[in-house]
Design brief:
The chain has 14 helices and 23 strands. The chain starts with 6 loop residues before the first helix and ends in an 8-residue tail after the last strand. A hairpin with a 4-residue loop joins strand 10 and strand 11.
Length: 485
């Protein structure tokens, strides 16, 4: 079952989700979610379900509001809007419409299908599908949501390598859209690739490699460019992660990390033409196992194992058992904060659809705790946005990525198919078992009893005019608290 929505409904849902999480005073009535906006006193209601939809405004009676009217109400509530905010919402709406019109037959490969399922994008971002100011005709041929595939471009040029780069000398892979934005043409055509959910990362199935490109396009909250600072972190971070993941894989067999091996670029356009090489998925996948993107499981696609689920509790417990303990171990045993949100985690399922493996990816969002002081001092050098974080900040980030952004959404997908299933009792049991086996870390015990967990405030971040990589959190109810196991 694929969760395809029309552009109006999808755009409204994203705004409603942001208001519910970050701004509104929330209550429920039969079949509806009530959202009172505290500054203006505006009262909205939306049809209650996994995601709210069909917004209505109360002005003595209830009447429907369009996605654009809802966006205007957001601006009235929060005050002077950031430059271009309403344009971003409109661009995201237009992009969804263009994607749905251009969508082709889903690929036969279930893994590719799961990566390319995210038509709605980030459900808690006000403009999840905006592609900056680019017209749809420019980016649609390369969009994962349309089930695109295309040959990678090749440049023959002077190159700079760092890390483990297994490419022919003097050859630089480039994204065709990347070259078009720079006004350049390819020297040759490379292998056929297909784009993953992150848009700028593509998979080369013949070589079993991922290529992450530098695209000067704003997608959700950031311009997706490979900055020099991020590039120079790749080789030393890979050296840190290799023994960490060797230990985690030994402790939790089947766990794998798709390592960013290094990067290649050209001195003449160091950031603009940079490409990161990442381990492929097949080399880490056990026989008989199918890798699937976690975000795809949440959003839905034809062939999703959730659609044929008969025992939701056993399935969810297996899911949490393969995903959560490696992440907790990386934090507590190794001081590594994984960015384990749904687009950075793949789950391998066996022939019956049961989760049996977890794969993690993307160095860029990872952070290191202070125990890595020597490396942080050497590489960060006091740079703003550095990868070092305090234990408290790292734990806050991990709770959001793992619990709110990830497990809450997978649980929602399960419960949408099996209403009333007490999946959180299963999740709490997995977290409690990890705590018991590893000396009951205070932070983890606190999580199991806390009434709230941190959720990223993507809407309010726009109003704070923060940089794309910045974080701001609000409290949301903790589903792990006080649930019997």
């Amino acid at each position: 079952m694929e969760a395809i929505s029309d552009p109006d409904r999808t755009t409204s849902t994203a705004l409603l989700n942001c208001l519910r999480r970050e701004v509104a005073e929330v209550s429920t009535t039969a079949g509806h979610l009530l959202l009172r906006l505290p500054h203006t006193g505006t009262l909205l209601r939306a049809r209650h379900g996994r995601w709210p939809e069909s917004p209505e405004l109360f002005t003595g009676t209830w009447h429907p509001v369009t996605w654009h009217e809802l966006a205007v109400l957001v601006v009235k509530e929060l005050g002077t809007a950031p430059v271009g905010f309403l344009d971003e919402i409109a661009a995201s709406h237009s992009a969804i419409a263009a994607i749905l019109a251009a969508r082709t037959t889903p690929p036969a490969d279930l893994y590719q299908r799961s990566e390319q399922a995210l038509v709605a994008g980030h459900r808690y971002h006000p403009a999840p599908k905006s592609r900056g100011s680019l017209p749809a005709t420019t980016w649609l041929p390369y969009a994962p949501e349309t089930h695109a595939s295309f040959p990678v471009s090749l440049l023959h040029t002077d190159v700079v390598d760092a890390g483990d780069i297994d490419l022919p000398p003097g050859t630089l892979p480039a994204h065709p859209l990347q070259l078009a934005l720079l006004g350049r043409t390819a020297d040759a055509e490379g292998p056929e690739v297909w784009p993953t959910s992150s848009v700028r990362t593509v998979y080369d199935p013949a070589a079993d490699l991922f290529y992450k490109f530098s695209l000067d396009i704003q997608i959700t909250n950031d311009v997706r460019r490979l900055w020099t600072y991020d590039l120079r972190w790749i080789p030393p971070l890979a050296q840190v992660l290799k023994p960490v993941f060797a230990d985690i894989a030994a402790t939790y067999p089947g766990t794998a990390f798709l390592l960013d091996r290094g990067y290649r670029t050209t001195p003449a356009a160091f950031e603009a033409l940079a490409v990161v090489l990442r381990d492929g998925i097949r080399r880490h996948t056990r026989p008989g196992v199918t890798p699937l993107l976690a975000a795809g499981l949440s959003e839905g696609f034809d062939g999703n194992p959730l659609d044929t689920l008969t025992d939701p509790l056993a399935w969810f417990r297996a899911y949490v058992s393969v995903v959560a303990p490696p992440v907790l171990h990386a934090f507590f045993a190794h001081g590594v904060v994984m960015e384990c949100h749904m687009q950075n985690v793949l789950v391998g399922v066996d022939a019956s659809g049961l989760p049996v493996q977890a794969f993690y990816r993307d160095h860029e969002g990872m952070r290191l705790l202070p125990r890595h002081t020597a490396l942080l001092s050497d590489v960060d050098g006091g740079v703003a946005g550095a990868r070092g974080v305090s234990e408290a900040k790292g734990w806050e980030r991990l709770q959001y990525c793992l619990v709110v952004n990830h497990l809450v959404e997978i649980a929602g997908a399960v419960q949408a198919r099996h209403p009333g299933a007490d999946v959180w009792g299963e999740a709490r049991a997995v977290f409690a078992a990890y705590a018991e086996e590893h000396g009951s870390p205070a932070l983890l015990m606190s999580l199991l009893e806390s009434p709230v967990v941190p959720a990223k405030a993507n809407l309010l971040l726009r109003w704070s005019r923060a940089e794309g990589t910045a974080s701001r959190y609000v409290d949301c109810p903790n589903p792990l608290r006080g649930t019997s196991s």
